[in-house]
Write a structure and sequence with these properties.
alpha/beta, 2 domains, 17 helices
Length: 470
């Protein structure tokens, strides 16, 4: 080991730590929404490549020091981590391999625990900073693994966001562990003898590493600025959406539904304009029910926002039902995600009994997670809905024959990297093959954020409220 080796190793480790802390901080600020950022997949790919480069120096160090057990367990841990990272990347870019996320995560955690034990108990433990790193890795891996196992047996932990908060904090702390490797290298550098003259091959290799290090730094900085800008925009719109949602919650009735099992669903109900006065005057009109599925909490109920305006309430008199989406849950249709669809269906049936709802004119709509839910709701309960407007969603094409008679107008962005456009295309094609007549609008060159285009679609609400089940 010469000084150049330690310099390069420390450089890549510092870069890894900086990128990890940056990403961990963004995850705490944005929550799971960080994975929906347009630039996140390429950021994820590049930072994992840099992590692999840093790992190479670490493995080379173990091999040179003849820490064979640590070398082999470290190699296995790196390969397991790469396997998990590959699954995550495919999931982010194409929506595939979702069912492999948890198995590969547990594989990675297990491999890291074994690697940590080697740092704690093998010859490498003679180095105090390596031993400390081993204990740190073991502790964070144990906490993460225990939290995941707990959440698998406790759905409430997923629904209330407890698991996400634990992972956020542990990941941020874990991103600092590589600093212990730097402390180990710095200690060895101090007692290192002056480098002998490098051979031409060594100089060439060092020059190549310098170029790689420079490119890694530049790429990380550029992508860091890009993702920070996007995250800032996302936080801004989160605040704006929060303001709109707050206004909606003040206008609508906040209610709670409790089913026969004692499970509860918080929801908002926006009644038709002047409904209470009309009922007192003996009005017997029945109204459509619009189910607007948010993508998180009450946020993302965009059509409900439109229909909260008095002019629209006058033109499209209806009950608007907005169920609350707990953190870490969904409406169904997303593999590996806990859903509360049955609870929502029960709440809808309770509303039918309580209010003058025209059960032949129930509609469902939603964006992103709500788009998945819209497809899932009509394919699960086609008897319940007359029409759906799924935006940036996906469903199971095998269930399309069941909804051939349901009116659908689907929307998607051609360049959507969060929910691949194939999700809508496949469902529309399957419905057409089954004899259905769905409408489909695809916005060329657009990504995931297309609601501003959807809302400007001529005749959208007229079409929706004209639908009725026979």
């Amino acid at each position: 080991m010469n000084k150049s080796f330690y310099h390069f190793a420390n450089f890549f480790i510092i870069l890894i730590v900086a990128a990890s802390v940056f990403q961990g901080t963004l995850r705490i600020l944005l929550g799971p929404a960080i994975f929906a950022l347009e630039s996140f997949p390429i950021w994820f790919l590049v930072t994992n490549a840099i992590t692999l480069a840093g790992s190479f120096f670490l493995l080379k160090y173990y091999y040179h020091k003849k820490y064979r057990i640590t070398f082999y367990t470290g190699t296995i841990a790196i390969l397991a981590g790469l396997c998990h990272a590959g699954v995550i990347y495919i999931m982010l870019t194409s929506g595939g391999l979702v069912n492999y996320v948890m198995p590969t995560l547990f594989l990675s955690i297990g491999a890291n625990l074994v690697y940590a034990i080697s740092l704690m108990a093998s010859r490498a433990s003679k180095k105090i900073w390596l031993k400390t790193a081993g204990y740190s890795i073991f502790l964070t891996g144990l906490v993460t693994g225990a939290a995941l196992l707990w959440s698998l047996n406790n759905q409430e932990a997923q629904l209330d966001g407890s698991l996400e908060k634990i992972i956020q904090r542990v990941s941020l702390l874990g991103s600092l562990i590589p600093l212990l490797y730097i402390l180990n290298f710095m200690g060895e550098q101090k007692v290192l003898k002056e480098d002998l003259a490098d051979t031409s091959t060594q100089r060439s290799a060092a020059d190549s590493v310098k170029v790689g290090a420079f490119l890694a730094l530049c790429t990380t900085l550029v992508l860091g600025v890009l993702i920070a800008t996007e995250a800032s925009s996302s936080l801004y719109w989160q605040k704006q959406n929060a303001k709109k949602t707050e206004a909606l919650t003040r206008l609508a009735d906040a209610r709670t539904f409790v089913d026969s099992k004692g499970d509860t669903l918080q929801y908002l109900l926006l009644k038709p304009l002047n409904y209470d006065t009309d009922m007192l005057n003996g009005d017997t009109t029945t109204y459509p029910l619009l189910v607007n599925l948010p993508y998180g909490g009450y946020e993302g109920a965009e059509i409900a926002q439109i229909l909260s305006d008095d002019l629209y309430r006058k033109n499209y008199p209806s009950f608007v039902f907005i169920p609350y989406c707990p953190p870490g849950s969904g409406w169904g249709g997303i593999p590996g995600y806990p859903d509360i669809d049955t609870l929502v269906f029960s709440a809808i049936q309770a509303l039918d009994k309580e209010f003058p709802i025209d059960t032949s004119r129930r509609y469902v709509t939603g964006i992103s997670r709500g788009g998945y839910g819209s497809w899932h709701f009509i394919t699960t309960r086609p008897d319940m809905f007359a029409a759906a407007i799924p935006v940036c969603g996906a469903g199971d094409p095998q269930l399309a024959p069941a909804v051939a008679d349901v009116a659908v107008w689907a929307f998607h962005g051609e360049e959507d990297r969060n929910v691949p456009v194939s999700g809508s295309r496949n469902m529309v094609e399957a419905m057409e093959k089954a004899g259905g007549d769905p409408r489909y609008t695809e916005f060329k060159g657009e990504g995931h954020n297309i609601w501003h285009l959807v809302r400007e679609t001529p005749g959208l609400l007229d079409w929706l409220f004209a639908q009725e089940r026979e």
